[in-house]
What we know:
CATH class of the largest domain: Alpha Beta
Strand content: 25-35%
Number of domains: 2
Oligomer: single chain
CATH topology of the largest domain: GMP Synthetase, Chain A, domain 3
CATH architecture of the largest domain: 2-Layer Sandwich
Low-confidence stretches: none
Strand order of the largest sheet: 1-4-5-6-2-3
Largest sheet: 6 strands, antiparallel
Mean pLDDT: 90
Helix content: 10-25%
Amino acid sequence: MATGQMITTTRDIDAILIPLGTPVIIPEGAQVAITQELGGTYTVSVNGNLARVEGKDADALGFGDDDKPEAKEEVKTADGPVEESAIWNAMKKVYDPEIPVDIVNLGLVYDVHVVDTDEGGNAVEITMTLTAPGCGMGPFIVDDVRAKTLAVENVTDVHVDLVFEPPWDRNMMSDEAKLELGMF
Length: 184
């Protein structure tokens, strides 16, 4: 499906209003336009508002099962060390639903540490921020960080510390992000 194309929803969809973070239901038969398809979630325009739709609801937007992210419910054990580069790569799959650049290139991730747990696992401690302290989408972005990091091989637990010091500013963005957003 092409971004911007009008789509009629095939069933009710649980969604989150952007930027407030308020849960809403997009009813069956609603006309929506996809504005962003990144990181396994969809940002849609509906009735003049933006809303985030989880990948598990891709079928209601007309995407087949091949387009849905795999849902895995498993107890993880650590069979070895964690590659820190794999964590950073996983976080590059997390997007602010309003900005088509991942959170790493936006400069929102300040620090990553892998810590051995007493149970023999590998906990990852992440310090990050948001583009604005009052961002209603913050809890959803943090949840995405947790989920994508937990999917990294040998990661058994994830702790995200959301901070606002130092405050984020555009100078923290990578050159790649600035180019993508037309800031060069």
